[in-house]
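Budget justification aside, the reviewers requested a transparent look at the raw inputs and outputs of the sequence design task funded under Objective 1. We therefore reproduce one unedited record. The lines immediately below are the structure tokens for a 257-residue chain.
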């Protein structure tokens, strides 16, 4: 049960800020405390007024044609993740796309593998879409699965503009060794704030800053809330993300065929 709870939290964090790595369940960041002493320098919401960037040319291999979330078979992104006071780690995201526009994002780091299903919806990219097994986690101790039973909204809208707000609410059930152990509802709201020039190990990007607020309710327990930001670069995806008091993730390298 403890491992399933940690896996569910991992899924919640990934859907809240999509560049998170595949942390082992025992090291997944928990809600911050007043004495944690860890400050994430990504939580300011002041945006310098700058013009909207010219639309990047569409990639003919992109199944969704979403300017800020490429869905291209064989694409990879590597991120450096700083979790509280721990040594930074890296995680590589690899995308596999099928002809109907559905895809699987596989996240690998040392000793663990995490997968997340998504699709090209009519209004944008949707992670943890219905139906079927939507996420899996495996390490040396075994594996767990999450299946989405209900989904409403989008993760990344197709026409994301400054000032836009949107949301996604999903209900999932978790199972380990074939036995359903819990269910939960995850709601995330987003607001596009403006453009900033962001420098990360992969380079300097002119990115759209998006504020997110997440709330996960495991049925029968109080909600767990998060607050953070993501920076999306056209034609690249998430170049930086962070949750307040928890972690920072920065793009190290990427390849989009």
């Amino acid at each position: 049960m403890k491992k399933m709870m940690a896996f569910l939290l991992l899924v919640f964090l990934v859907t809240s800020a999509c560049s998170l790595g595949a942390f082992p369940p025992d090291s997944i960041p928990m809600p911050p405390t007043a004495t944690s002493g860890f400050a994430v320098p990504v939580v300011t919401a002041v945006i310098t007024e700058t013009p909207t960037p010219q639309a990047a040319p569409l990639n003919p291999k992109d199944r969704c044609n979403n300017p800020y979330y490429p869905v291209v078979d064989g694409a990879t992104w590597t991120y450096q993740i700083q979790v509280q006071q721990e040594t930074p780690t890296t995680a590589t995201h690899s995308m596999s796309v099928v002809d109907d526009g559905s895809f699987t994002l596989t996240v690998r780091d040392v000793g663990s593998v995490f997968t997340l299903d998504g699709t090209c919806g009519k209004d944008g990219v949707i992670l943890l879409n219905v139906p079927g097994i939507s996420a899996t986690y495996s390490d040396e101790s075994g594996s767990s699965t999450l299946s989405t039973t209900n989904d409403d909204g989008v993760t990344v809208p197709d026409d994301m503009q400054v000032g836009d707000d949107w949301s996604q609410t999903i209900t999932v059930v978790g199972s380990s060794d074939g036995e359903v152990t819990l269910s939960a509802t995850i709601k995330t709201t987003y607001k596009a704030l403006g453009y900033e020039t962001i420098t990360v190990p992969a380079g300097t990007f002119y990115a759209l800053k998006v504020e997110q607020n997440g709330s996960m309710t495991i049925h029968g327990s109080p909600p767990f809330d998060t607050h953070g930001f993501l920076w999306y670069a056209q034609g690249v995806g998430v170049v930086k993300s962070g949750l307040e008091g928890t972690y920072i993730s920065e793009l190290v390298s990427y390849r989009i065929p």
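The mean pLDDT is 83. Residues 162 and 218 are 33 Å apart (CA to CA). Computational costs for records of this kind are itemized in the attached budget.
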